[in-house]
Amino acid sequence: MSKGKTDISNLRDKKYEKTKDGNLKGEKAVQANSYLFRMAYAPSINESTNIFQMIPALFFTAIVIMITRMASYERSMDQFFWSGGSSQLTDFFSYYKMVGILVCVALAFILLLYRVFTQSFYIKRSNFYIPMIVYTAFVLLSQLSSDYKGIALLGWNDRFEGTLTLVAYMVMLFFIINVVNSEANVRQLVYTLAGSSILLSLLGLTQAFNHDFFRTSIGKKFITPSWFWDRVDTLNFTFKNREVYQTVYNINYVSFYLTLLIPLFGLLFIRSFMRGKEEVLWKKITLGALFTLLVYNLIGSSSSGGFLGMGIVILIAIIILNKRIVQWRKPVAILLLLTIIVAGMSYDRWIPELNQAVRGVLGMPQQSTADESRKSSANLGNTSDIGTKSFKIDYIETENDLIRFSIDGEVIEFLTNYKNPLEVYPYDSSGNLLPLAPTETSPVYKVEDDRFEQFTLYPAKDEAGNRLFVIQTDGDDWPFMLTPDGPRYITSYGKTVSLHKIPAIGWENNQAFGSGRGYIWSRTIPMMQETLFIGHGADTYCIYFPQEDYAGKYNAGWNINTIVDKPHNMFMGMVIGTGGISLLAFLSLLLGYIIQSIRIYSKRLDYDFIAFCGVGIFLGIFGFIVSGLVNDSSVSVMPMFYGLLGTGISINMMIKNTNGSHPE
User: Where does the source fall among the domains of life (predicted)?
Assistant: First the structure.
């Protein structure tokens, strides 16, 4: 073959033989069909990739999650009425993970260019590229159409999963599919992942036992630049004592990514045990210890989303592996015993979480009260404090000179006068003027009507001399500024905003479902109607969520100043950010992998390292997808997900090639 030509255009190579009818024979035909594109000096389809060329894949899958470093950045927040307006922001858990992901992509591009120039570039044949291309296209289209292109490019505060990151995921998925070629490559990735998992699990133990490494002087200096060391004692994370957050910022993300690893290393322990004397004892002990550490960290994270994912993993494993589990009864019994021991040691963690999860599913109020929740300081997306109220505020509206409240279906309107704050007239929905009576506290007045007995009101002024009108409902203040354009609600940061009815679908009588997810999802579903085709831009969910839904937050028992920055559902977030078509592409990618894996692993499974890694990764991916129904995509967990997905696809290709058929 002449230099520069590809094997698919000229198959007359000594590596291949033809029958009389011109068809390639046996395994050589399979290998030829396994390439979509292949240059002259490309390696064989099952030839190991050099460890040097595996570095981007290893770093992306196993190391990025460990990156924790203080980053200071500027972002104009005064454009948002619900923000304090500070432009100086600090991040520890996401910014440099984003940087690490982009570095991996840069290295991958360099290696791909090296292959092109050395005529060793190739692309494996796979239908998975189609949904990957469609997904990437709509990520880019959403970026181009976004009203907040700067934020969409890099991503939201503390998240940084913008357009650059999402495109990087697809590039790395493509790269990993095309560099993981052999058992040696799979071992390199799995062993690197095992090493990082051990370190993360040990870090989680320090947090679970209230000796968090990141709270020590050395730990603080380890994750901050030297110029900050003279102030390192001022650094104080807001995590509660004994919460296992590792390096992923949110305790939910710990259980989220662990659903990927526990099935993988559990299956490898079973394989190691069943091989008997062929496997050295220290490997069995190491895998058993790693499994135990991972389970403890899963429980220590106190996140029911991870429990849900693992429950589904066990169910699918029983269906797919069926009779083989009986054959593996001894190692399975050992893993079950280890899990029971860990659960017994940490019952004080998972029992309360399970109780809260059940109460959340049933829509029952959580342990903390609504009043305590509203009096707490505002927090970004913290939905743990859910309560109930004795009455429901259906909505609050400001229209012309009116402030309109709907309480349990009864509407009261306050007609205001910008020039005279003392001139206020309350009306019911029928237009009847409601009488006001003075209270013992002047100039506070109460509405003399049994339907609205919880209402009191009074005029006021702020420090700048602006005229205010304050409405109280059972002691909760609702301040409004009187302006020439009508009354405007005053936020906790002194900014003003018009209020209106917020569209909501579902969970009407169960806002507390899933620790507040019922409320969030009920507001997110109407938002999705605008992004069924193209999204608002990657990671812009926080901007478009109706943060002015103070009535809804009040009913849910939240601090009404709580900022909802994520939907707590990976798939809903995808629709808002990059559009419904991108979600369909993503789901078709996953569905194709799941169907392919079921076909492969429902058959006979030998004690082959590749096969056990393949089924372990498949179960982990399935559990991760289920957990994604109640968790969010993030730069902390998605690199590992895509790294293992790419490895799983490559393993399926290897197995299908071995069986004498080319990949789908």
Answer: Bacteria
